[in-house]
Amino acid sequence: MKKVLFFGLLTLTLSLTAQTDQRIYDIIDAVSAERIEKDITTLANFGTRHTLSDTVSQTRGIGAARRWIKAEFEKTSEACNGCLNVIYQKDLVKKGANQRIVKDVEVVNVLAIQKGTKYPNRYIIMSGDIDSRVSDPTNYTDNSPGANDNASGMAGTMEAARVLSKYKFENSIIYMGLSGEEQGLFGGGGVAGYAKEQGWEVIGIFNNDMIGNITGVDGITSSTDFRIFSEPVPPTETEKQRKARRFYGGEVDGISRQLARYVHKTTKTYMPEMNPMMIYRLDRFGRGGHHRPFNDAGFPGIRIMEAHENYTQQHQDIRVEDGIAYGDVLEHVNFEYAAKLTAVNAISMASIAWAPPAPKEVKIGGIVEPSAKFQWSKVDGAKGYKIYWRDTTSPTWDNSRYVQDVTEFTLDGIVIDNYFFGVSSVGADGFESPVVFPNAIFR
Ligand SMILES: [Zn+2]
């Protein structure tokens, strides 16, 4: 009898402390700065990876670079008994599509797809860019190593594939190299369109663009700060949804913002030495990145990148001028830092890929009542749900209540007017879906 009681207590303790999972720490430890350094070096040594550059040479130009990336993904796949399906996705972009497309070009992306065991049509995506540029965006012949922009993000994506392909996940993961970024986000547009055609359910995309620079123009050197950019609400929202926001809230709670919060929380939980900065905007001021075409298609997507940029080392002809060494060369990349940001991606993808889907519908009620009420659609594979709330001025989901075996709940004494709310699904291992902001109301 005593034994049974003791065992019961032990299980209770375990289930209460199962907020972290050893596998996530193993993933962090498995990310190799040495392999990332090797891959960034190889990418930089293709001379130029400009989207319009040579595609025939085996040693120079974007053709050689993408064939090498594909071969590396295939090697990773061999090591996991063919767990990755490696494909090219391509679109012909005609001369004059914009001023930066000075001749017809095939924009070719490389996708390595790790199919999920339970939800194969649900995809979490990590991307880096293959292409590079110098001062003139149409100069496709001069040396353009693009070591940080964006061999760093590409190498991180390849390394994440090596690490995560050792595991099986319920949801699918895609490791992706995109082209045409510098010419006008063509590669991302191509894959986003392909995803729609294929009817993929995209959980989200982590666009990694420049994850290797630690000393910025702001004079700050930090190997722990990094930024997570997310737009406030989807550009695809309807007029009706826009109007509803005035009355029910959600100005800072779009689907991409929830994804940003997910990465922020996963980092704080497992890599507390890092300093994730959630930036409440689509991207840097007036500048772009490859998560945007996915946002345009209605998919959640964020940009993960260094916090302190150095503009003399981006989009520059390699030269020395007034004592300043311009150019995006290997010497400026911090490989340890790129490895840390790769780990941030890898643990966030693993957590999402091990989690059940989020509830599709979350209804909120409680107008002129003392308590906030919730109803949500049942999720197959969810062990329970977490109702989150936070002060309206807080960026993070600070309070939560775990519930099991129900699809409705009342938060006694929590007045609906004073907080923002959301609901997530929780799987058997404790991994959680992103939070869903209420998308319907009830009385
Ligand atoms: Zn760039």
Topology:
Elements: H1 2-17, H2 22-30, H3 33-44, H4 62-78, E1 84-93, E2 105-114, E3 119-129, H5 147-164, E4 171-178, H6 181-184, H7 186-198, E5 201-208, E6 225-229, H8 239-248, H9 255-270, E7 275-279, H10 292-296, E8 301-306, E9 319-321, E10 324-326, H11 335-353, E11 362-365, E12 372-376, E13 384-391, E14 399-404, E15 408-411, E16 419-426, E17 440-441
Parallel strand pairs: 3-4, 3-5, 5-8, 6-7, 11-17
Antiparallel strand pairs: 1-2, 2-4, 6-8, 9-10, 11-12, 12-15, 13-14, 13-16
Helix pairs in contact: 2-11, 3-5, 3-11, 5-11, 9-11
Zinc ion (ZN) is lined by residues 149, 182, 315.
Explain briefly what this protein structure is.
The protein has 443 residues and is an alpha/beta fold. Helices cover 31% and strands 24% of the residues. The protein is built from eleven helices and 17 strands.
Keywords:
alpha/beta, eight-stranded mixed beta sheet, four-stranded mixed beta sheet, globular, disordered N terminus, binds zinc ion
Can you tell me about this structure?
By secondary structure, the protein is an alpha/beta fold. It has 11 helices and 17 strands. It has an 8-stranded mixed sheet, sandwiched between helices. A hairpin with a 2-residue loop joins strand 9 (319-321) and strand 10. Helix 5 packs across helix 11 (335-353). The longest helix has 19 residues, at 335-353. The termini are far apart. The relative contact order is 0.13. Mean pLDDT is 95; it is low at 1-8 and 10-18. The structure holds zinc ion. The site of zinc ion has 3 residues, from loops.
